[in-house]
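Weekly puzzle thread! Below is a chain. First person to post its structure in token form gets bragging rights.
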Amino acid sequence: MTTLDLDNKLITIIVLFRVKEGQQAEVVDRVKELFAIAKQQPGFVSANLHRSLDDVKVANYAQWEDEASLERFRQLPEVQKLIPPLQALVEEMDSHRYEIVTSESKVGTPVIEPRQYFVHFAEFRMPTENQPRMVELAKEHVKPAMSLDGLLSATFHRSLDGERVINYGQWENEGAISKLTKRPGFGSEDGYWTGLAKNEFHLYEVLLSENKAA
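Winning reply:
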């Protein structure tokens, strides 16, 4: 089970794939192949496969015990063999290491489990000098956001390279999140991030979770 913990004791990697038209199912299958290899490796903790409901994205939220274990996995010949065919199916593969900077929840410490909730990845891309302010604003807005009906948790991550902030949110149903998209200030041009970051938002389901053996 993947726990979204403010202690940040594990290495967290979020990979967002923008898929070519009609290729989402194939990308899901290719990522599953990587999961099958990853779960056999020392240092692997968890990997969680998401697909966006609009067929545009696939996402992996993964945790490893340490950087060395992750790098050994990446350099495996069987992994290197799978990467080019996967890259041919996507327009972009955006991978960064993250740490959690703030989290609010109505359900205790958030965990990722297949088919339990609808999930959103709100992706904020920014110049590195803007990330500290973006994190401050995330901390200011996350608690008030929990007043939204149907929002169960919201967890903001910052990439260690300074280029990204991601809000991973869990919703009890698709209808609840549709109300959010109609709220003033939600649009990409008029949110609290205006002038700091570009925002892209997709709604996902969790298809698969792989976890290290107990």
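Puzzle host: Confirmed. Bonus trivia for everyone else. The beta strands are 2-3, 11-19, 44-52, 57-64, 90-105, 111-112, 118-125, 151-159, 164-171, 198-211.
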